[in-house]
Amino acid sequence: MLCDRAGVTDSALTNHGMAQAQRLAKHIASDEVCNSSQITHIFSSDLQRARVTAEGICAALVANPGKSPWKPILATSLRERDFGSLEGVRSISDHELSQSEPRLDDGSSKGWKNCESDISMKSRVETFFDEHLQSMLDLDADDYEENQVVIIVAHGIILRVFWNYLLGLFYPENVVFDIQDYSTKLEETFRPSWSNTGFLDLLISPLGPKLEGLPQFTLGGWQMKVQASNYTNHLHGLRRTKGGIGSAAHDRKQKQIKDFFR
């Protein structure tokens, strides 16, 4: 697979990316995937391709009575991996990277210098969980609320690291899959992926007290159900504009044709 290693480079959304983000925002606001009135938090990486997507979701939502308009909560801990010397380099295949020399503690290898390590990324997602999410899952907290909907807008690699971290907080038997066409065997090796604006839908719900005599997982009294993986139904029928326009950086000052007839 060939890919653009954007990493922590603060690149703008393309015109096609903006169209995808608008589709996502409209889809979430339509209540097709969740009850938008139950959304309590929208977190986002502070890199603009994620931030603009999150801001679009906020703009599409109707603020609850008596509350200020929605704004995303920006977190540097949700930034994408820093690819070091390969930051922004095009046409570098995953296979080529896998053939590099074994990584050092700083994530470096032959031709891949100063890359952020796996340990560093895990530390970042742990910080994000501790600072923003753990209190929401405390049943004994005075401000605990049921039926909270939390949206996290970030990037493919850091989201996969976050998934792996989250998975380790539950008893394995309390992680269930409600995805069509996923067998038990696939569940054991499930590795989510994210297309542009594709999302992973998780339902985390309380089960009861932690089991005695077993290893004490952080979320031992909870169940996590995977309800959708790389969900992109909102993109059906959307095609990239030809002639390089779809791949060009989006200019917020640019108007759509329909705007000239208002």
How would you summarize the topology of this molecule?
Elements: E1 2-3, H1 15-29, E2 39-45, H2 48-60, E3 73-75, E4 92-93, H3 94-98, H4 118-133, E5 149-153, H5 156-167, E6 175-177, H6 184-188, E7 199-206, E8 222-231
Parallel strand pairs: 2-3, 2-5, 6-8
Antiparallel strand pairs: 1-4, 7-8
Briefly say what this structure is:
The protein has 262 residues and is of the alpha/beta class.
Features:
alpha/beta; Rossmann fold; 3-stranded parallel β-sheet; 3-stranded mixed β-sheet; 25% helix; disordered C terminus; Phosphoglycerate_Mutase; His_Pase_superF_clade-1; Phosphoglycerate mutase
Could you explain how this protein is built, in words?
- One of its GO terms (biological process) is regulation of pentose-phosphate shunt.
- This is Phosphoglycerate mutase.
- GO terms for molecular function: fructose-2,6-bisphosphate 2-phosphatase activity.
- This protein is of the alpha/beta class and 262 residues long.
- The chain has a single domain, classed as Rossmann fold, CATH 3.40.50.
- It contains six helices and eight strands.
- It has helices at 15-29, 48-60, 94-98, 118-133, 156-167, 184-188; strands spanning 2-3, 39-45, 73-75, 92-93, 149-153, 175-177, 199-206, 222-231.
- The strands form three sheets. A three-stranded parallel sheet has the order 3-2-5, covered by helices on one side.
- Strand 2 (39-45), helix 2 and strand 3 form a beta-alpha-beta unit.
- The longest helix has 16 residues, at 118-133.
- The protein is globular.
- The chain starts with a strand and ends in a 31-residue tail after the last strand.
- 19% of the residues are buried.
- The model is unreliable at 1-5, 182-186, 243-247 and 256-262 (pLDDT under 50).
